[in-house]
Specification:
Elements: H1 2-27, E1 56-60, H2 62-65, H3 92-97, H4 99-105, E2 106-108, H5 119-127, E3 133-137, H6 140-143, H7 154-171, E4 176-179, H8 185-192, H9 196-202, H10 208-211, H11 219-244, E5 249-251, H12 255-258, H13 276-291
Parallel strand pairs: 1-2, 1-3, 3-4, 4-5
Length: 294
């Protein structure tokens, strides 16, 4: 009994101490004194895509210059899918701005033969106009080299595109960017190789990594074309990934790569570059993508 009484007093003492401790916490504020967390700052809202930009600048390669669309071995910017004024094409600029404003508020800085390494310079020229929208179509010449070994590496292609966007953002931070995918070069080979004249023109040096020995179907030729095709697909992955990191950039989702250029859409001078009809189809794709709400 004595031990039990001693144990009881010990329990009472422990409970008393605990209650005093709780009272002490309440004395300095209790629940009301619990530390409060500062509210996290709200993330900046993603800028809404403007589907009706007021001006357009184009950068890229021979496709955007309308090369071989109007005559052999020459640029024809009037039929450019991006900025041309031709009624046969109704370029992206014409569709968005109207023909009169397109003549005043669109600029074409693309250069035939350009590769991704040339894009930062072109982008600087485009940015000087502070355009509302910049169109980008580049990459075919990075794959169209004398050999597969000479193709632009995927890492260099990525670095060039990233540098170009940095240049744009420094000079025209609010400009939107529409990025067209690199065309399916293997499909162009498959489509054009049925034309004897086209194959003769290809022998002059049109995209030799893909189009050389157009009728050859041996293992080496097949491997070469597959290597080019894989590189094009890697380039498109880069365009998609880099564009996704920029809130004002929109990739075409592979629409140009997926488009099946037929004989009417290919230049009848080289059976490789888009014809006037092909330029019109590119304009349609771009307009649909730019005008899309998402």
């Amino acid at each position: 009994m004595r031990k039990q009484g001693h144990r009881s007093r010990a329990v009472v003492a422990v409970l008393t101490a605990a209650l005093v401790g709780l009272a002490g916490c309440d004395a300095v504020g209790g629940d009301s004194a619990a530390p409060t967390q500062k509210p996290k700052p709200s993330p900046k809202p993603t800028p809404a895509w403007d589907s009706s930009p007021a001006s357009i600048a184009a950068v890229g390669d021979s496709i955007t210059r309308g090369f071989d669309a109007c005559g052999i071995l020459k640029d024809c910017p009037d039929v450019s899918w991006a900025t041309g004024g031709s009624t046969q094409v109704d370029s992206l600029a014409v569709r968005l701005l109207g023909r009169a404003k397109a003549a005043e508020r669109s600029w074409n800085y693309a250069v035939s033969g350009a590769r991704m390494a040339d894009l930062p310079t072109q982008m600087a020229q485009a940015a000087s106009r502070t355009p509302a929208l910049v169109t980008v179509m580049v990459g075919a010449n990075d794959a169209c080299r004398d050999s597969t070994a000479a193709m632009t590496s995927v890492s260099d292609f990525r670095a060039g595109f990233e540098d170009a966007l940095v240049v744009l953002r420094k000079r025209a931070p609010k400009a939107q960017v529409y990025v067209a995918s690199v065309p399916n070069l293997k499909r162009l080979w498959s489509q054009g190789r049925g034309n004897p004249l086209g194959k003769q023109v290809w022998k002059l040096g049109v995209c030799p990594s893909m189009l050389a020995d157009a009728d050859a179907l041996d293992a080496a030729a097949t491997e070469r074309r597959d290597t080019v095709q894989e590189r094009v697909e890697s380039y498109n992955t880069v365009l998609r990934q880099v564009c996704a990191k920029d809130q004002r950039c929109r990739y075409d989702g592979g629409a140009v790569y997926d488009y099946r250029f037929g004989t009417d859409q290919l230049s009848h001078w080289d059976w490789f570059h888009p014809s006037v009809n092909g330029q019109a189809r590119l304009a349609e794709i771009a307009y649909r993508k730019v005008r899309s709400v998402s």
